[in-house]
């Protein structure tokens, strides 16, 4: 059981609480209570901090001209579940998919779009219904077949197939057809204008000549999805996949413009962040994304360079709205008021992050701080609980008039050291206001099976994180229609939210659309279906012989083809 008993006053002072948390984490009690050594991040600033940028610049200047050849070994805390972009959900699957596949348009470190497989910007018709995308004519798949418009049509028709069961049907709700007007031009036709559609052009393109005759119901188990036979157009191709151990990528020398400098990249699967750090310390791996707790240790490693960059993400507690405990918005607000998020940032993230009061990244145009910030106020939380019918009993437990205790389970994935530590601290904070929360740590696959629709009725609450998409709309996460098959894992339903967010796609003017989306996000902050916790940094540790590395708020292996070894 993940439980730390705290003796003394029911509600401690904030400073004392921080000291307690820091002491617990310093002594490693959280890891001991974990019951296992599984502690890695799975995910979910516009640039690295000044010191990191300076350091990278100095290193590159000293290193001289890029060198070809060699192998780099990178640590990854979980294996990809699929290489098919229409079905990818986990961040690590997405990161691996982008190494072998490519989209029409890629996301830059500034969270803008730039052409990738597209030859240029798209053309939009005057009525806003047709997007004409010119394609490069020099792109080839790893098996030597040329990429054409047929491959793009095949990929995007998957999203609008009536038997499509992936999580992005809502994104393509207004896509009426995809047509190849010649070998290297595609026209997307919408049923009505959609201001967000350009942001749907970031999904990887798959080979029609291999997959075109496969029934859509068989795709998720097809060799292109789950084996080393996956064929893409990216700068690397898979040559070996030793499940549970490693995945080997070799340079695709016939890439149209991104032929890698490295010969080989080996992805070594590690149990957790602790294992990634240990492997880096012993030079078994050259690159690892480590937990915020380990950043200070990482900075002391002689052969390592470390960067800490605000990620395009946030971590949250999702309250399953189908559970009667969490039906009342005031109860959800009281739960948020019971959690000292600032102390978690300082004691769990070691300051590598910031408190999240708004359910989107500060790096996004939709972000605003002109909202009511819910404070850490356990006394105020108890008042709200009392108004909702929950009073402290003689055992200092919240109890309703029927004698039922306020108790529930919270699930998270055990690969994330940040969440494993945070859930224990949250457990104690809730215990201080008379709530019994039992953490349930699951491996990533089991965790996703538990929280994903349609079989997600059995969990009470979840501790998760979003690596955010380019489009800042919250409808894919919170719209009521997304509860059946999409990303609304917590079964949140609000007519006010749905009616507010739905018109956003019809608004062509970007500023007017942002205003609508800010209103929609504000409803979420008021309703509290999520307790947004913090925006966390991406802490990357790489061998000082590794050059060409560039930070990206949303991609671990950004521009991997430009990495090289300074021997």
TrEMBL record:
Domain of life: Bacteria
Gene3D superfamilies referenced in this protein's UniProt entry, alphabetically: Dipeptide-binding Protein, Domain 1, Dipeptide-binding Protein, Domain 3, Periplasmic binding protein-like II
Residue ranges the record marks as coiled coil: none
Record InterPro entries: Peptide/Ni-bd, SBP_5, SBP_5_dom
Any single GO CC term annotated in Swiss-Prot or TrEMBL for this entry: periplasmic space
A Pfam family: SBP_bac_5
Keywords: Signal, Transport
GO MF assignments: peptide transmembrane transporter activity
Biased composition (Acidic residues): 38-63
Occurrences of domain Solute-binding protein family (ranges): 113-477
Chain positions covered by the region annotation Disordered: 38-69
GO BP annotations, alphabetical order: peptide transport
Family as reported in the entry's similarity comment: Belongs to the bacterial solute-binding protein 5 family.
Protein name per its UniProtKB record: Peptide-binding protein
